[in-house]
Design brief:
Layout (H helix, E strand, L loop, with lengths): L4 E8 L3 H8 L5 H4 L5 E4 L11 E8 L1 E13 L3 E5 L5 E9 L2 E9 L6 H6 L2 H21 L2
Length: 144
């Protein structure tokens, strides 16, 4: 069976803690989303940690809301979340000299319907979305 993960990476000129603060703040997710599906957060959102849940306003053709849970967490190094569909979005941060290597992954190995995700071509299309997300993330943190 093929590994069901697609990843993209970018070296960002910012400290991992600055980048992690953005990733753990759901109110920032619409600003960095390269897919243009995240429209904003719902309600008061706390800083994310292991087990946290958060709700987002989304739009993929039609507007909807989705609730996600943080499944993996290591301060300033790793955060991953997913929703009822089972697939996950993961961000890994690794210090490299005075910069940070950020690896974003879309992991559908835990999905409830992995074949459907593959049939609609989401993993293939999502690579460009991740490149745009990391570009936007860099623009946000490198300018601070």
């Amino acid at each position: 069976m093929a590994r069901r993960v697609v990843s993209c990476e970018r070296l960002i000129s910012a400290d991992a803690s600055v980048i992690f603060d953005v990733l753990t703040d759901p109110s920032q997710h619409a600003a960095i989303d390269g897919s243009n599906t995240v429209q904003g957060h719902v309600g008061k959102q706390e800083r994310l940690s292991l087990g946290s849940t958060f709700a987002m306003r989304m739009r993929l053709g039609v507007p909807y809301r989705i609730k996600s849970r943080v499944f993996e967490f290591a301060e300033n190094r790793l955060i991953a979340w997913g929703h009822f569909g089972g697939h996950r979005w993961r961000y890994e941060l690794r210090p490299v000299e005075e910069r940070t290597l950020v690896v974003e992954s879309f992991d559908w190995s835990t999905s409830r319907v992995p074949l459907l995700i593959e049939l609609v071509g989401y993993p293939r299309r999502h690579k460009k979305n991740m490149e745009r997300t990391l570009f936007r993330l860099a623009g946000l943190v490198e300018s601070s």
